[in-house]
Each structure stands twice: as C-alpha cells, then as structure tokens.
Amino acid sequence: MESRIERIKKQLHNAKYKLTPQREATVSVLLEHEEDHLSAEDVYLLVKDKSPEIGLATVYRTLELLTELKVVDKINFGDGVSRFDLRQEGAAHFHHHLVCIECGAVDEIQEDLLGDVEQIVEDRWNFRIKDHRLTFHGICSRCSEGNEEKESE
Amino acid sequence: MESRIERIKKQLHNAKYKLTPQREATVSVLLEHEEDHLSAEDVYLLVKDKSPEIGLATVYRTLELLTELKVVDKINFGDGVSRFDLRQEGAAHFHHHLVCIECGAVDEIQEDLLGDVEQIVEDRWNFRIKDHRLTFHGICSRCSEGNEEKESE
DNA sequence: ATATTAACGACAATCATTACAATATGATAA
DNA sequence: TTATCATATTGTAATGATTGTCGTTAATAT
Ligand SMILES: [Zn+2]
Ligand SMILES: [Zn+2]
Ligand SMILES: [Zn+2]
Ligand SMILES: [Zn+2]
User: Which of A78, B47, B100, B146 would be B105's cystine partner, CB 3.0–4.6 Å?
Assistant: First the structure.
C-alpha cells in the first residue's frame, strides 16, 4: 500500500500542483508532529532543520495550499496565532479539541459526537453544514488529578 | 427593574472597577449592536461617534476587561480579527454560530444543544468543561433558497 | 538554446494588537 | 485647600503574525 505522503502527492497533482522538495519537507514535518498543533512559525523552524534554505513565506504558502486541499485544517485557539492540524485521512469532519486553561495542553477528540446536533441544526436552521470547529476549554484530567487535595480548601 | 447597563456597572464594581464614561460608551455600543459580531476596530469606530476623544487602546482595554468579567465573549472566525459578542444575561455557556461561506453572514444559535456531548466529554475524557466554542461553516438558508434552481445544473 | 511558467527566497509592507510614557481624574489624607 | 496616591486615559511607538513584491531559480516545452 502506498504511503501517506504518496497520497498527498496525488492530491496535489489532482489539483495541478507539484510536490516540490520544500513542500515535501513541510508535509513530512507535519506528519512527524501529527499530535501537535503547530503554528506557521513552529513549522518553519522544524522544516529548517531539514531544508535550511527554505523561506518563511514558502512555509506560509504551503500551509495555505494544504488548507485549501483540506490536507490540514487551520485552527485558532485564541492566542493570536493560527495552528495547523493534519486532517485524519478520510475523516469527513474536523476533530474536536480540549484546551486546558491550567497547563495549556491541547488534547484531541477524534470521535464525531456531533451527529445529532448537526442533524438538528440542518433541519431547524435550514443550514447546510460543510465544516465545524468545536473546542472545549477547561481543566484536563492531568491537572485535576494532581490537585485533588486542593478541592477541600 | 434596573437596566442592563446598571447590572453591568455592578459587575464592574464587584470586581473593583469603575464604569467610566469611556467604558459606558463602549458597553452601550455593544448593547446597541447585540446582533452583530464586532471587531475591536468596529467598536472603536462606533464609540467614536458618541465619544470622539476616545482612544483605540482604551477600547481594547475595555473589551479585555469585559471579557475577563464574562460580560462579552471573544471569538475568532478565522479571518484574522477577534470579535466580541455580548453574552446572553444569565447564560451559563456561550452560544453557537453559523457562518455562511457564501455570503459571510453570521447567525446565532442560543439553544445549548451540547448538553449530552458535554456529559460524554466530562465522563470519558475526565475533562472539567468551563467554556466552549462551537461554529458551523456552511450555506445559510438564504443562500441555499436563492440558488435552488442552480442545483440541477 | 530559448521561452514559459510555477515556485522560491529575501525582504518590505500591512494589519491587528500590545506596550509605553506622559497626562488626567478622582479619592483620600494632611 | 493642597499634597499624595491609585487608576484610567491618550496618542504614539513597538511588536508580531501574515501577506505582498520582485528578482531569481528550476523544471518543462518549443
Ligand atoms: Zn492541564
Ligand atoms: Zn487537533
Ligand atoms: Zn449565506
Ligand atoms: Zn454571537
């Protein structure tokens, strides 16, 4: 079976784009950091390790392109920077996020969970849903476990 | 019964802040545009009509303060600016949004709808939810009605 | 080899947001 | 009243993320 990067290459070709060395380096950084939520600057710094001559503008352009092709999703957690998240292969919808207001950790929820809600929205508001963004802000399991004793204060 | 602005004034006082004329002008602009989703710049321009001497920095600080007090919620629809939305009085949670990718309209969903989902997230992920952001992107009712005939093309 | 064109890299420009320094306002104490 | 202190404001400078420009490069077609 072909690799993930091969399939992304095909997606690019279908849309008449090439997988240049810079684009390949960028995609491979994203693949190596699938768990993370990197900003453009983060990606740039990581890509520079492989391809020191790459320019920041190219990274921005590549991320924009990948967003357009829905290879990545662009998301904003409210801290002034856009972050880029590889879309699960074949996933119809973007996954959800848990942002901890204590430690800043960002966890993912791959389960859809919104099926019923989306049905209601489509029906009651007559709105044709194409995409969504769902983020919960709160206290992650690690932070609340560590501080259980403080509850009684 | 006291007015909305009176109650906001009390909230400020409880937190040891004053409702200065500039803050009052800003809040009143927000009240007059409850349906809209204004950026800081938008608010600034509107407030200047009432108080031409107000500074942009003051508007930013006031919006930050109101966000802290949960009088307004700060939201980002992915177009590079933060927008500010008066929180429904007494609402436990922030309302949801429908963003039309055709015409750009932003509609609101005041219903909670997420009760079950939040219960699942709290239980399965052991995450203590404090707030959320839910936005659907798609085609609004007005845009899909107007273009029904195009479906058959 | 020459022309064409997509893609690059370096750097300038833009735009939202924040930081700063000087001034004003308002309450409190001498 | 006058001095003092804290808070809030203003205009402006600085910052930081993102986008635009432009001359160059690299791959492809003629
Ligand atoms: Zn945490
Ligand atoms: Zn994610
Ligand atoms: Zn529309
Ligand atoms: Zn709203």
Answer: B100
Q: Which ligand is nearest to the CA of B87?
A: 4
Per-residue tens of pLDDT for chain B, all 153 residues: 678 999 999 999 999 999 999 999 999 999 999 999 999 999 999 999 999 999 999 999 999 999 999 999 999 999 999 999 999 888 878 999 999 999 999 999 999 999 999 999 999 999 999 999 999 999 999 999 866 554 443
Question: In one letter, which amino acid is B7?
Answer: R
Strand pairing category for B38-39 and A106-109: unpaired
Give backbone dihedrals phi and psi of A133, rounded to 5 degrees, phi first: -135, 120
Q: How far is A19 from chain B (nearest CA, A)?
A: 27
DSSP B78: S
Q: Using CA coordinates, name the residue in chain B closest to A131.
A: B137
Query: Which residue type, as a one-letter code, is found at position A119?
Result: Q
The pTM for the full model equals 0.91
Please write the tens of the pLDDT for every residue from B65-87: 999 999 999 999 999 999 999 99
* Residue that has been written with the tokens 């009088």 in this structure: B71
Superfamily of domain A91-152 in CATH is Ferric-uptake regulator, C-terminal dimerisarion domain (3.30.1490.190)
- In single-letter form, the type of residue at position A13 comes to H
Q: Which CATH class is domain B1-90?
A: mainly alpha
Annotated ligand binding at B137? The verdict is no
Residue carrying structure tokens 């992915």? B78
Q: Do B117 and A118 touch (CB under 8 A)?
A: no
Strands B96-100 and B128-139: parallel
Domain boundaries, chain B: 1-90, 91-152
Round the CA-based radius of gyration of chain A to a whole number and report it: 18
